[in-house]
Design goal:
Elements: H1 3-10, H2 18-24, H3 31-38, E1 42-46, E2 49-52, H4 59-69, E3 73-75, H5 77-83, E4 94-98, E5 103-106, E6 111-116, E7 125-128, E8 132-135, H6 137-147, H7 154-159, H8 164-170, H9 173-183, H10 186-201
Parallel strand pairs: 4-6
Antiparallel strand pairs: 1-2, 3-4, 5-6, 7-8
């Protein structure tokens, strides 16, 4: 397969693997990948995962890459909170939730961080524009509080710099309560009650 054919066949793939390629071309010579890397056509970002060098690297593409390189996963925590304009945009990494173990990838594109959650709480995400698996706003915040149990007081809540107006405008209380119940944790429920009291007065 020549590069132009390869590019046309896989232009819609956020991340390419040898398995993907061999579905289309069973006889594909993997040495081509090394050759195309040397020529600057593609970039290796994780073991066995490649992206096209020419494609614009925007937030949506980074989110798609995050979904793909460690699955099952969805975008949550700081990345999702910034996406919903609840916190400032300066994010240190692309953050996700997975049922697999906590893991991080340092890549030439970005740092990808995955935090582990029990299967019963692996809910509350949807397909956002661009086919990205993205936590609902309510679930992103609940995931964050669950994983950071030290956040207890009004001073702690204040330190998060949550945009209270955005939160109140976007909040779906039925969704919030449904996802909170999936954690099955009394301490989290109590903390969220204090947080909601704080947000009402913020």
């Amino acid at each position: 397969m020549r590069y132009e054919e390869f590019r046309r066949a896989f232009a819609d793939f956020p991340v390419l693997t040898l398995s993907d390629i061999r579905v289309v071309d069973n006889g594909f010579d993997r040495r081509r990948l090394s050759e195309w890397q040397r020529k600057g056509y593609i970039r290796k970002i994780v073991k066995g995962g490649y992206v096209f060098s020419e494609f614009e690297l925007n937030e949506e593409r980074l989110f798609l890459i995050a979904n793909r390189i460690y699955s099952p996963s969805y975008i949550s925590l700081e990345s999702a909170l910034a996406y919903y304009h609840l916190i400032p945009e300066s994010i240190y990494a692309v953050t996700s939730i997975s049922t697999r173990r906590t893991y991080e990838f340092e890549t030439p594109l970005s740092r990808f961080v995955y935090r582990s959650l029990k299967r019963t709480a692996f809910v509350g995400y949807d397909i956002a524009p661009g086919k990205v698996r993205m936590a609902f706003m309510e679930k992103a915040l609940l995931d964050y509080f669950y994983l950071y149990p030290a956040l207890q007081t009004e001073d702690d809540f204040e330190s998060l710099r949550i945009n209270a107006d955005e939160f109140r405008e976007q909040l779906n209380e039925a969704r919030w309560n449904a996802y909170l119940s999936r954690f099955g944790q009394k301490a989290l429920t109590q903390r969220m009650s204090r947080f909601m009291e704080w947000i009402r007065n913020a």
